[in-house]
Design a protein that fits this description.
Oligomer: heterotrimer
Order of helices and strands of chain B: EEHEEEHHHHH
Number of helices of chain C: 20
Largest sheet of chain C: 7 strands, mixed
Number of domains of chain B: 2
Strand content of chain C: 15-25%
Mean pLDDT of chain B: 91
Structural class of chain B: alpha+beta
Distance between the termini of chain C: 43 Å
Strand content of chain B: 5-15%
Low-confidence stretches of chain B: none
CATH topology of the largest domain in chain B: Ubiquitin-like (UB roll)
CATH class of the largest domain in chain B: Alpha Beta
CATH topology of the largest domain in chain C: Aldehyde Oxidoreductase, domain 4
Number of strands of chain C: 28
Number of domains of chain C: 3
CATH superfamily of the largest domain in chain C: Aldehyde oxidase/xanthine dehydrogenase, molybdopterin binding domain
Radius of gyration of chain B: 17 Å
Strand order of the largest sheet of chain C: 3-5-1-12-9-10-11
Mean pLDDT of chain C: 96
Distance between the termini of chain B: 39 Å
Strand order of the largest sheet of chain B: 2-1-5-3-4
CATH superfamily of the largest domain in chain B: Beta-grasp domain
Radius of gyration of chain C: 27 Å
CATH class of the largest domain in chain C: Alpha Beta
CATH architecture of the largest domain in chain C: 2-Layer Sandwich
Chain lengths: 281, 184, 787
Amino acid sequence: MIPAEFDYVAPDSLDAALRALAHGGEDAKALAGGHSLLPLMKMRLAVPTLLVDLRHVPGLRGAQRENGSWRIGALTRHADLQGRAELGIVGEATSLIADQQVRNRGTIGGSLAHGDPASDLPTILVAMEGTVSVRNSAASREIAAGDLFQDYMTTAIAADELITEVRVPALEDWGHAYEKFTRRAEDWAMVGVCALVRKGADGSCEDVRVAFTNMASTPIRATAVEHALRGQPLSSDAITGAAEQAAEGTDPPGDLNATPEYKRHLARVLTRRALSRAAGV
Amino acid sequence: MSSNVPVRLSVNGRVHELDVEPRLLLVHLLRDRLGLTGSHVGCDTTSCGACTVHVDGEAVKSCTVLAVQADGTKVTTIEGLAQGDQLHPLQEAFWEDHGLQCGYCTPGMIMAAADLLARNPDPTEEEIRHGLEGNLCRCTGYHNIVRAVSDAAKHPHAGRIPHPGPTPEGAAIGLELAREGLGA
Amino acid sequence: MTAVDSRAQGGFVGRPMKRKEDPRLITGRATYVDDIQPVGTLWMAFVRSPEAHARVTSIDTSAALAREDVVAVFTGDDLEGIAAPLPCAWVPPGVEVNAPEHWPLAKGHVAHVGDPVALVIGVDRYSVVDAAEDVVVEYEPLPVVVDPEEALKDEVLVHPGLGSNKVHEWSLGGGDLDAGFAAADVVIERRIVNHRVAGGAIEPRAVLAEERAGHITIWSSTQVPHFLRLFLSILLGLSEERIRVIAPEVGGGFGSKLQIYGEEILCAWAAQRVGRPVKWVETRSEAMMVTHHGRDQIATVRVGAKRDGTVTAFHAKILADFGAYLMLLTPAVPALGAFVMSGCYRFPAVQTDIVGVLTNKFSTDAIRGAGRPEATHMIEVAMDQLAHELGLDPLDVRRRNFIAADDFPHETALGIVYDSGNYQASLAKLLEHLDVAAFRAEQERLRGEGIHRGLGFSTYTEICGLAPSRVVGPGGFGLQTGLWESALVRVHLTGAVTVYTGTSPHGQGHETGFAQIVADRLGCDPEQVEVVHGDTAAGPQGLGTYGSRSLAVGGEAVAKATAKVVEKGKALVAHKLEASPDDIEVRDGRWIVRGSPEQGMTLAEVAGSAYIPEDIPEGMEPGLEETAFYDPNNFVFPFGAHAAIVDVDAETGKVKVVRYLAVDDCGPAINPLLIDGQVHGGIVHSIGQALYEQVIYDEIGQLVTGTFVDYALPTAAEIPSIETDRTETPSPVNSLGVKGIGEAGTIAASAAVANAVIDALRPLGVDYMDMPFTPMRVWNAIQEGQQ
């Protein structure tokens, strides 16, 4: 399968890229690693008329620690992050994305901008309550994770805007786990559950975040689970009880591999497992 | 509609300058323009990995990389893995262990395995199996592929991928000289 | 496990030699069809129906034709010059077959998604895809039927002109079925669904055709170049000697390239029309739609047995979903399974009743195993179900019914004669590697930890080495062909050897295995033996590679042709050395006089004497090459015992194979390395079907699993290492004693996995469920089981 024709530019600065995007209008697309966009273009499910390739844009790759946060450049590849213990859940989740070849090309900014609810990183960002910095040729702004994902493959990022940076709290004293349920290792998540747990000195759950992949048209927080567990002892009973709330408020799309009912069931099971692992129970 | 874009890249140590359609996939540049037909296409969804090559030392699925994205990079394909008659340890091991049958997935499988061994020189069986999850094989049941990668890992240079020759940037100087009639 | 020691004393046969094929494959120097690009090649792309069933009311090609990069556009109205529809080669005597016409381009009516309605020829790989999108087709949708049981009601007709969706009825039985069931203490009945799968060769199909001065050359990724030439001749009305078909490197087949495809015919036809080479390379999305599928049978299996487990009657009624058209072997596939519906058992009465039905899906045909995986799945799952019903050990029930080791050749109730076997021995060998009692203790312990582990067995025999022509040919089973094989062995003047085989490998390693056979007999090194295949212009007529036939039929033809060379060579050596031909033997690379090893010649010296014939026996022709054709007098029947151990995550339904053991018997090994490779691949193919793969159409006939994202071939990460071992029971059918091994793993494994999953699930209230054991299906079964 072959992409339809398009025009192509590869500007050598962020400003030039933003100008090109603005000039290209609604049918212009930014190209980073291309591993979300090019597969759609090959199937002709996406037919942009202009690609603005960001490969010459400097300074957007790499992860830096700053004041309790990680600042991760939008063009940072999954492979740059995979398996890095100091990055916590980001290191864990990026190592589970697709396969090594995809991780070598795919970027964190591209994945977030694509806004696929079956992708892993949007869920991680939502769980971590991170933010993305976006810019157009006139201004820049921050978008909180909770506001970023609006609908299926629809984000708050305007057509003339680019993500430049992803900022997530380091959450160093939090336990973390991402339970990704797939048929095959390289597949998209049938359901994914990200759990972050901060254990208090008394062993109770001081704070907790749980977010789901592929349980709605966007990544979503499992607020009922969090509410049920926060302040409770981190016992396996408490975790099991809280995980029972996992399906509350979800509206998962059914697909080839899973009906909504089955996905809700998986969410409960995986939430329990993720919380247990994150809490070290 | 779209105008062609100049691309300069080093493939297996040789620098090429071409004008390409922006939509040209790297795998088709390699196959149709450079005649390097060792990289294969087995799917249209970035699933099978038969087209795996290395771009700047990392394995990528060349069906999901535009040729223009490879501008300025060093590409290594299966054709560039052996050094003259000296097979790469992975090639030796695939041969020795019967790690291939029809051979169609094999170039991509070997290039993916090279990336794996570069990251993890001493992988467990489990790590090998996960490291190859982006490559499909229908013939071997993976058994002998895993064995081959494991055997190749015993070789001290198994994770080393040759990038012979100049960078495209370095070569550009030579090309300019050649154009001005100062080259050999 | 280590394989049995081969008999490699001095010879090459039996040695695990690494392959002669591999250097070109591991360096990227092999030549597949898409790697060939004659000067001036044009590209072909298809406009395919998005509707599962429709009348084509109009096709507007003007926009495509107006493009500068388009050379021609053709539709079904342009097909004058194609003399006949695509072939179905099975015409069973005495059976009425209701077959729709199948044209390579639809003539006003499409019957499945992907049915081609137009083809576009353009100047390059990319623009021809754009041009195909510019062809505007209007469809008038017709009602769709995708469920074969619904289709049988004839409320919606796949081909309205045919009057019925039912294709045929065909039965094969032996023994007194009624008496068998009457004598039974217990009768079990199971509905066993063997779902639709794809072949999944990683190289999609590809065809290139070039005509020059009335001669046409076709490169195709096919398993059957000679058949393709024959049908090109018939369909294009071109004399056969003017057609050359080449199957270059072929990137896997698994039955999916044992076919005469419309695209092959059209590529040749179009090359004639436009006067330039024309190439078509299938995309994976096309492959999922229009490269033939396999299986898709719904069986009702009844087994009658005594309380001790002795089976008295076995009856399988099969509804086979053929899809929209009958292709080369479509209706013959379930029938092939019927030949081995006795399995490795002494069933006194066996019957298979087959009904074929059309649906608005793509055609089914032979996929690795072709009818035999389905039959074995039925038998082996039913044996476990029977054992459970009777409260007996499933292995005891198998042993009670095994054909005795001293009862070969064995004629089954069906009248099929099994050549050789020792089922007790292969099972015993399997159990040397697997401690069942220890497993049961472990299983019990793990259940306490919430892990549901299961063990399943499959003891199988299959029928292969296709095939004795008198049995399968027009007057017998009804295939419109013989199924012999050919070989030409040419010793060159220097002693180098070229072997031409009519088989057409696509990964099996013939170039190595056949060279080992020849080298031993001619006293040379396999390195000096080149095996040429897949080219109708090189070597004698042949029939191709499928049905695990290449070694047992093609290899035997090679052995026979080599024997003729040896016979002539011996006469020549005897003449030169003044000895009797009976005293000449080939030993340690020399042709010597028995008892006088100092007197001898090398193969090069023998060949030199034959090609410079100054001094050869009176009446002997010069030269040293021979051809042999071999038609086997029986099939061969490989067999074995497999075991699968699976873990079921009862909370999620996810199944993982954690251990797989296989003991197979394909007769004496020619090359154990190649055997193991075939077994590994075959097993994983079948695990794929059992756990991951299914071709799914929705209720309006849209293909849901249209890519490798949705059609889930297992990756390395899903599969354990496979533990293999062998027994070696020679076949009396051929001089090599060999049987086939290409399909054995696939035939055996799905039942072992199914029995293991059910073993794991029994404590959860699940006594039976069908493949595929996908997480949701297993979880659903557990929910139902616990109600």
